[in-house]
Structure formats: structure tokens, C-alpha cells
Design brief:
This protein has one helix and ten strands. The protein starts with a helix and ends with a strand. It has a single domain (27-162), classed as Porin (Beta Barrel). It is mainly β.
Amino acid sequence: MFKRGIYRCLFFSVVISVILVCGTAAAAVVYKLRTGTTFQEGCVAPCMCPVMGNMDVIGTFRLVEKSVDPLFTRYRLRKISWTVVAPEGEVVHRITGYGRYRIGGEFALLQQLILIISIDGSEPMLLDSGLVPVESTFPAISISVDRGTQCYDIGMDIKASPR
């Protein structure tokens, strides 16, 4: 009877420990887009069509640590809420979505940002930076993303830091 009680107590201790360790969620850090965040849309070589210039982007997102492995720390972007603003102050687009960010590397510090965004409620599209050198000291993020398409492309230069 005594042995069973010890095993039962040990079992519940292990279960509670697993719940405490696994149940703790990483806190979301609110990030704000900074000056220099821009949106580009239009033609790229070899096509010829009008190109909308760089327009400022304002807004926020939440960054949540997802996992850490020997090479990279991986994050999720949640609740992207951005507004593209023309030089005159007119709202051009509203962007919502989510994404993934990773930073690390074996020999050089590298980063990658992948966004799944909807512009003005359109079908979601993927923008990707590819794996590129880090341009700023984390937790600040400075990176460019685009659809990687020929002729008509959408791209963004993103500069963000915790609010």
C-alpha cells in the first residue's frame, strides 16, 4: 500500500511538472514598424508598366518565440496590422496576415522572414526574404521581402523593433 502511494505521488509530480514546463507559452512581444518601412508595387525588368514608388508603412505585429535549435531561433509573427500611406497621407492599402522569422547561422549571422499577407482583403500571398545577412542588432529587425515574381512584383523593406 505504501509503495503504491509513493508511485502515485511520483506520477502526479511528473504530470504536474510536464504541465508546468509544456504549458508555459512564450510571451508575445509587440513590434512597431519604424521609419524606413516601405511598400513597393509595380513592374520590374524585363517588363514595362507603371511602378508605384516607395510608400511608407505604419503598424504593428506580435513576435512570439517558437523554437530554438543549434543554428536558429525561430519566431512567429502574429496579428500583422499595417497601413500603406501615400506621401500625401492618403491610405493606399491595409495589410493583415502572419509570418515566420528565423535568425542564427553556423558561420555568419543570417535571417529570413516569410510573410503570408492579405492586401485590402485579397487572397493571401507569400513574401519571402530568402536567407540573408542580418542588417541590425536583434531584437530590431531590418529586412526586405518580396513575392519573387517576374514583371509585376510586390515588395517591402521592413524596419521594426519592440514597442
